């Protein structure tokens, strides 16, 4: 204590600042510290329960849009390895598909064959092929013939060493892991995925997306064998293309990884018809891919082609589109989100998250520094300027760190601290207006 006293006596400016902080009293600082800690843990609770996710998406989208505007001359995110082929209204509500659910599997077989002939590197089929009855991989007899056609086509393409990734679904089975649900292709002699090979010819991955789609989903343990895992749709694709990128991502020891930058749908290659249309969100048309004379097929050569659906759910042009999900770039098809995951892993834009203690420590330190600045400023306008400046600093910090897949959340503790400062200011005004009552309270 003597050393602190001597330091204060030899540094009058430091003593002046210390005295100004002490004016507020111990109660003020205990309340400020308590609100800071409460705000941080409230933020953790909100994040764990996925509240305000849409608001976070909008904030991320605004920051990314600003980043794109600033960096466009030098750096724009485009898909380097992936292409999307959509079955849209034109195909789904045609006489051939007749708006049927489940979609005709022999049509999917034709589409796989066409993409194979176009020279795709990998074919990924993003369609739900679950069997209708739990625990039984058999489909209804009505669909058996077209299921056999699909399986036969997949096997023929796979025998030519064209990797194919199929969609599967999982459900949580308790603390021991997940259970893979039966698919109609399991009972029709599908070529097995050989786990010893670095790139299985036919593999599968779960298509369920994480609640926060800014994070890459990684392989999950199976309940049947804790040592075995089921890949996510994106990691199964990357495993076929780049085993090094796959190992780098999977060996992170996490269930999900944040990644930097979201490629919007209009940056993916589109068909000629899509370029001429006002709405360019259709991607590549399945009907044009099936047309062997169409120039669209040249865009598929050497690409990872994800085949998916993007039709209106009620009738052609009416109703929400199927498989739409919220994302930092708005409502987009699930296939586009999977493609973003693949691009992030292949281009080394997926990162191990910062340690939780470090993130929370930075948040607490930032809010405590803001509290100190607010206490040292006597003018209300200066305090407001400090809050605005700190908020802008936090936004700039998040703006730059989003390229590293890092996100900080100062919102909740900052609002609580600001509320404390405002209430304290109101109390001081009240003491000035009612001095006698204030003395009585003391």
What can you see in these coordinates?
- The strands form 5 sheets. This protein has a 6-stranded parallel beta sheet, with helices on both faces. A two-stranded antiparallel ribbon has the order 4-5. Strands 7-10 form a two-stranded antiparallel sheet.
- The chain has helices spanning 2-10, 12-22, 25-48, 53-71, 89-92, 105-117, 144-159, 233-241, 243-250, 272-276, 286-290, 334-346, 356-376, 380-401, 411-433, 435-441, and strands at residues 82-87, 122-125, 164-168, 170-172, 178-180, 202-206, 215-217, 220-221, 229-230, 256-258, 284-285, 304-309, 324-325, 332-333.
- The longest helix is centred in the first third of the chain and has 24 residues, at 25-48.
- It is built from 16 helices and 14 strands.
- A hairpin with a 6-residue loop joins β13 (324-325) and β14 (332-333).
- It has 2 domains: 11-69 and 354-441, no CATH class; 82-346, no CATH class.
- It is α/β, with parallel strands linked by helices and 442 residues long.
């Amino acid at each position: 204590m003597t050393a602190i006293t001597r330091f204060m006596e030899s540094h009058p400016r430091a003593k002046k600042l210390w005295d100004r902080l002490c004016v507020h009293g111990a109660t003020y600082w205990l309340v400020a510290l308590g609100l800071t800690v409460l705000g941080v843990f409230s933020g953790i609770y909100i994040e764990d329960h996925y509240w305000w996710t849409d608001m976070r998406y909008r904030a991320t989208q605004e920051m990314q849009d600003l980043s794109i505007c600033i960096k466009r001359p030098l750096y724009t995110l485009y898909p380097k390895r992936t292409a999307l082929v959509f079955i849209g209204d034109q195909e789904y509500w045609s006489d051939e598909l007749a708006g049927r659910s489940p979609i005709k599997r022999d049509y999917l077989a034709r589409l796989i064959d066409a993409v194979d002939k176009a020279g795709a590197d990998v074919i990924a089929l993003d369609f739900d092929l679950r069997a209708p009855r739990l625990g039984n991989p058999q489909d209804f007899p009505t669909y058996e013939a077209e299921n056999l056609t699909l399986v036969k086509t997949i096997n023929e393409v796979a025998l030519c060493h064209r990797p194919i990734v199929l969609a599967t679904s999982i459900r949580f089975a308790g603390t021991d892991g997940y259970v893979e649900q039966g698919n109609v292709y399991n009972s029709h002699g599908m070529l097995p995925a050989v786990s010893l090979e670095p790139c299985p010819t036919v593999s599968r991955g779960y298509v369920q997306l994480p609640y926060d789609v800014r994070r890459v989903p990684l392989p999950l343990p199976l309940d049947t064998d804790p040592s075995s895992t089921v890949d996510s749709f994106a990691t199964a694709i990357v495993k076929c293309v780049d085993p090094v990128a796959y190992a780098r991502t999977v060996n992170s020891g996490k269930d999900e990884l944040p990644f930097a930058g979201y490629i919007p749908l209009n940056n993916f290659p589109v068909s000629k018809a899509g370029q001429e249309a006002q709405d360019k969100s259709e991607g590549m048309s399945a009907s044009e891919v099936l047309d062997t004379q169409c120039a669209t097929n040249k865009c598929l050569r050497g690409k990872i082609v994800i085949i998916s659906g993007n039709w209106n759910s009620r009738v052609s042009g009416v109703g929400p589109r199927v498989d739409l999900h919220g994302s930092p770039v708005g409502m987009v098809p699930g296939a586009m989100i999977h493609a973003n995951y693949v691009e992030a892993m292949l281009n080394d834009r997926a990162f191990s998250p910062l340690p939780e203690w470090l993130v929370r420590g930075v948040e607490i330190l930032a809010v405590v520094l803001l509290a100190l600045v607010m206490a040292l400023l006597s003018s209300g306008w200066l305090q407001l300027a400090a809050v605005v400046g700190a908020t802008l600093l936090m936004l700039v910090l998040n703006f730059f760190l989003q390229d590293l897949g890092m996100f900080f959340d100062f919102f909740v503790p900052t609002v609580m601290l600001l509320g404390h400062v405002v209430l304290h200011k109101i109390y001081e005004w009240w003491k000035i207006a009612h001095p006698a009552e204030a003395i009585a309270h003391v």
